[in-house]
Structures
1.
Amino acid sequence: MLLSFHSYKGGTGKTTFVGNLGIMLAQQGKKVCIIDTDVNGPGIHSLFNIRYDMTLIDFLQGVCSAEDVVYRYDDTKVYIVPSKACEEDISAMFKTPGEARDKLLKLIKKIAKKLDIDHFLFDCSPGINKSSLLTMNIVDKATIVSTIDIQDIRGTYLLSGMSAKLDTQAALLFNRIPLEKRDDINEIVADFSKKLGTELLGIIPYDESVARTWSRKIPMKDNPDCEYCTQLKKLAEKLIK
Amino acid sequence: MLIIMSDLHNHNRILTYLDDMNERLKSLELRIIELESRNFPQIDDKMAVFLTVPDSIRKSLFAVSKLKSCTADEVSAITGRHRSIENKYLNELYRAGWLERERKGKKIYYSLSNKTDSTNNEHWSAVEEIENKLGRLLE
């Protein structure tokens, strides 16, 4: 399955979610490839502490082959395609958006064939931009990660509209929910999702233990029974049906 | 123009003058609306309207939605803002594809475009609703 993760504003917890989801799926025996399409502010390589040479950008620019940009995370079944920070949009590297799309699909195809990947996870750049929409356009399902901040909520409305325009199935994930109000908020966001006509993947309460790792650890690996991981496992089942 | 009220014989002429002026002003106003709408930059994504001017413009949109078909005057009666402001917002909404407009005589009537009518409007009111609910909960 091809799954992308978006948000309107930064800092909603996309990268943390994608990283932990990847580890969890690998723990269940799946082969996962995480591609960092947030080329303007890549971060997956920091979470997994990958020392890279060639990245997604080099592949897109035709400098290297697909095999050169995939890095295995320790001895797990998680493979990472990092990106180096770049001021340009992915589509700006090509003459047409179609060309960009084809190149990205080529990468996926090659990696899938070589490594026998079950799921591709795309960590997208926040906001409404070409890189993010390009990715949204090729995936099976786009997850929009939001907090309960008004800026995020209004943007979530925009993003879910975009996914409808692109004809990509979308799901909403509300992250960093105040624990003591989780039931009320669950009810409110369920109603909101229903009215938007977008599936609600679920909510994840704010977990101090995750916040305090500051991306130095991956909770799903080091502390898989924490509140965050427990909830993530439930949501993953819904996500990958 | 010099109007001498004491001249009874001139009363009819004055009224004709005033009527004429009134007509001219009305047609000028319509032309201004036309010109304004022509000069207004095209808003590519109609959803983006809501982000750039969310509160003010939403008010106008919902007024039109309530009245079905109405003039800027009628919208201004609901929003409490001056007609010229409503003219501007309604124009913006028209340019962005949210509204349709139709000229009947000297007046321009606005109504929700088919695109807006059902889904988008509902969706945006869902945003308003969740904001209000969360506002109360998190107070």
2.
Amino acid sequence: MNIDYSQELPVVEGRLTLREINDLIARPMDERPNKKYFIALSFTLSLLFIGAISVALTLYYGIGMWGNNQPVGWAFDIVNFVFWVGIGHAGTLISAILFLLRQKWRTGIARFAEAMTIFAVMCAAIFPILHTGRMWVAVVYLLPYPNQHSLWVNFSSPLIWDVFAVSTYFAVSLVFWYVGLIPDFATLRDTTASKIKKVIYSIFSLGWRHSHRNWQHYEKSYMLLAGFATPLVLSVHTIVSFDFAVSILPGWHTTIFPPYFVAGAIFSGFAMVVTVLIFVRKIFDLENIITINHLEKMNKVILATGMMVGYAYAMEFFIAWYSGNPIEQFVFINRAFGPYAWAYWIMVSCNVIFPQFFWIKKIRRSIPIMLMIVIFVNIGMWFERFVITVTSLHRDFLPSSWGYYTPTLVDFGVLIGSFGLFFTLVLLFTKTLPVVSISEVKAVAEGAQPSHNGGDH
Amino acid sequence: MSQSNLNYIKKDLPTSLQKIGFLLIGIGVIGGAGAFLLNAEQAAFNYLLGFMFLMSIGVGALFLISLEYVAGADWSTPLRRVIEFTASITPFLIILAIPILLNMHTLFHWSHTEVVESDKILKEKAPYLNQTFFFIRVAIVFALWTLFYFLLTRNSRKQDISKDQNLTRVNIRLSAVFIPLFAITASIASIDWMMSLEPHWFSTIFGVYFFSGSVLSALAVITYATVKLREGGYLHPRMVKDHYYSLGSLLFVFVNFWGYIAFSQYMLIWYANLPEETFWFLARWQGSWIYISLALIFVHFIVPYSILLSQPAKMDAKKLKFASLWILFAHLLDLYWLILPTFKGESTLLNFVLGLSFPVAAVGGIILLFYFNSKKTNMVPVGDPKLERGLNFRL
């Protein structure tokens, strides 16, 4: 296929009228959910139920129900936490950073990605909170509050910075998401036939009138929020990387961790967004709005960030050798060829090798192959956190303190439950809110641009 | 405006530029010769400083060319020739490296075989840090950069006449191949030329640190040149504030990126407090180096950040010019901070002043490259299919 570089590709395919865009996006909220929806929902709820049982067991018997041992004191809890926080990065990246970069193709996918951010951060929060043990008193050692005993949190620990970073990120993402929804709530309010819905939409649309002044304020606040959210995206995973890198443990302490973690987060987040969008665009007939071009662009981002992650793996390995430090060298050899070699090679093949197929345009645009690769990336990025955490811990400095970590059923149960929570929320979201921003898509539809035919405006 | 109307853009830059360029190079060569006569060891370090200054700008610009192609950006197409002119430093690097290779033993502690023999750690690193392999790496890295520079710019120039869209396609492919190669080669270059000055020290982020400074300084040259050339009427009149804004934003982003990477490196080493890593920062904290370390935070981050933060500032020609020159100075300071602490000898004021002649010559060289490139090449890529889109670019 030959592209004409003198023309910009249309963001929305086909010449949809504004009314058609409206109806297409609002339809899932007006129709009654069908049988398939309930089958899907009951499946995700079952996963959630497994998770609930596992959490109950953990709370009743304590975190001894997990496989954590000496020397592997950190395992599934931190692995799953970092995994979900990483997934939560794509949303704000797409909505804030791509907005600042004026990438129009983000409009079709931004809303969904933002929702996934919020859900993923909620999933992430489960794990550290559970690991605190008696989480009902966790507030004492997670949140600083004035008290007579001068009992303060450990401000010099990156774990406490995480509490601030993640909760700030969550709050800003939520506000950002909501601000973007306001014009759409107003559109829904004006078009819905149901009286109850009209009341609900009216409340949430905050009296939006689509007036010139409304839009002016909206644009300004959206820009400002995007500006705030951008450093937050980077800071969250930077601080998550600090959890490991400020220590002196070989395999954890290395200076490339902050940018490497951020790249990995974008990588895994994009993979998850593509995974979900493939189904959403099909089920809700959004193929004209979330086009194959958008998916291709996201696959390019996956390829690029996958290579950044590969660069970091290689650099870590090289510097471990270059440092001349025998313990550092041992940890990396052990990572690749020790008892956890299987995990390491799953990570490398899923994160570095499989995404290389995206060099080929046909594969970037083929839904089935794309789906396979992004699922591999999801798996690979989970294993990356597993490799970093467990392989660095399981062979302590003294051979007498060597061990092996095997997760228990409860460990898996909580992980499965987090997936259940995530997909249940995603399913509920598709039926209650517009999964694509109605107002933004209208702005990028063919014929909507003021300078469409070139020349100054 | 039709494509054919764009052909008028072929103006030579004023000859005064040639005079300035040669003057600066003349001062640089004389001063540099003086520096080598007075204190050859210190001069070698200062030469390396000037060399790294040119290398980082040249390869940073080469990266930006390929980034435009890969990302499919159109706003930067009208000013791509400016980026290409900046990248034309790369073919000269191999020649400019010769004086450093002749001074290997002065600069690189690890190049002394007798030192390596008595040092356990250096002995282990010897398979990488040895002269033969070093020369091979230098040759491969510079050859690759030069190759991609010629391929990318040749296609771009050919397109001026043929207007063939296929050339854009070829360049996109070349760029996609170049970017991963660039990541590897730039990391190797930064480790070889700068990190190995302290052969015991290591940091996995060092390549990224070099990358951030490199792209930032290249952007500073490009921004300054674009604004100057546009004001002088050498670029297309439909290039407006919106294009400036993009350059200003990129500068702002890379100022932040550099700050982020520099902070990450410092923070992690400071917090872990391992003597095998901290000695590098401690050397930059002793004597008067502490002032340079602290100044770097202000000069390289806080000041350019404050200048470029607001939206109007990113479009303001005056502020952009000032910020670009400031950033170039900051980059020089950064390189000085990276390289010179390894020089342990005595220094006098005269030595210091003469050492500045190398960066002066580097600036003169960049000016001359612009002058001579403009003689044989259009200042605007008139045959690029994305040019019209780029000129129509508005925020």
